Automatic annotation (TrEMBL):
Residues 78-137 form a coiled coil. Residues 10-75 form the J domain. It is found in: Cytoplasm; Nucleus. CDD domains: DnaJ, RRM_DNAJC17. This is J domain-containing protein. Its main location: cytoplasm. It comes from the Eukaryota. The keyword RNA-binding applies. GO terms for molecular function: RNA binding. It comes from Pieris brassicae (White butterfly). Keywords: Chaperone, Coiled coil, Cytoplasm, Nucleus, RNA-binding. SMART domains: DnaJ. PANTHER family: DNAJ HOMOLOG SUBFAMILY C MEMBER 17.
């Protein structure tokens, strides 16, 4: 973004904010867009650095009160001129342009009276000389957020199928209410611990069900704390011995994950979620056949 043509750009459109946006709103919009187009997240995009630089220059000007005032004055003048242009016919338009040209020529001969465009150029030069501490702070926050995101993507995924839980409760032979439990109230008891991937009540073996949570923390809390109905408590036990998952960290730190890698992770997790429901049903079937 060159200082010579910055007056021709709509900095508010670049950040997707209104001209009345507050400084906080401008910073928030910058972070949102910067996290998407940052060069570290788009290593294969040759234009990523240019786009990120454009966002940063827009932020630099709009969070500096003096520079923003100068830019807004130019922007409003251009908007007003645009409206006037639309209302003028071709003859009046030509007369107006001739008049504006003569005015600019008169101003250029007098260095004391600077145009709005010249004032904006002066503010941009000042920012380039002094640097922008606020801009550097915002760029640092974006960089840290991207590194945290990339670090999370590089962590090995936890397979919830390793922590399936078997649920049992007492049921009398002639009890048509299955001991007071059904899928609805089991979900009500258990969903407070976290997202449930699958919950299956055994259709043949009374007083028995299987559940799988989406997170290890939810699984562990359910096994430790859930008791169900006071007059007929639940017993929750791990279906299998849970292996210890070791997390290996790269000595060189987290590597960058491409959009293709991220898409592959998402698709894999979607397939796993669909497969787990079938796996639980198959396990129940095998248990009944034993």
């Amino acid at each position: 973004m060159n200082k010579k043509n910055i007056e021709d750009l709509d900095l508010y459109s670049i950040l997707d904010v209104k001209i009345t946006a507050t400084e906080a709103e401008i910073k928030k919009a910058y972070r949102k867009k910067a996290l998407i187009c940052h060069p570290d997240k788009n290593p294969d995009d040759s234009k990523a650095a240019e786009t990120f630089h454009e966002l940063s220059r827009a932020l630099e000007i709009l969070i500096d009160k003096s520079a923003r005032d100068a830019y807004d004055k130019v922007l409003r003048a251009k908007e007003a001129a645009k409206l006037r242009h639309q209302e003028l016919d071709s003859k009046r338009q030509k007369l107006k342009e001739d008049l504006e040209r003569r005015e600019r020529e008169a101003h250029s001969s007098n260095n004391v009276n600077l145009t709005d465009e010249q004032k904006l150029a002066a503010e941009i030069e000042r920012l380039q000389r002094e640097g922008s501490k606020l801009l550097l702070e915002e760029q640092k926050r974006v960089k840290e957020e991207i590194q945290r995101t990339l670090g999370r993507l590089n962590e090995p995924g936890w397979d919830s199928s390793l922590n399936r839980i078997k649920i049992k409760w007492n049921v009398d032979k002639n009890d048509s209410n299955n001991g007071g439990y059904n899928e609805s109230n089991l979900r009500r008891f258990l969903k407070k611990y976290g997202e449930i991937v699958a919950l299956i009540i055994s259709p043949k073996k009374r007083g028995s069900a299987l559940i799988e949570f989406a997170t290890k923390e939810a699984s562990e809390m359910a096994v430790e704390f859930e008791k169900g109905l006071p007059d007929n408590p639940l017993t929750l036990k791990w279906l299998n011995n849970r292996p210890i998952i070791s997390i290996k960290k790269d000595a060189n730190g987290p590597s960058l994950v491409s959009d293709r890698d991220y898409e592959s992770i998402v698709l894999t997790k979607m397939r796993q979620a669909a497969e787990r429901q079938k796996l639980i049903e198959d396990m129940l079937k095998e248990e009944h056949e034993k």
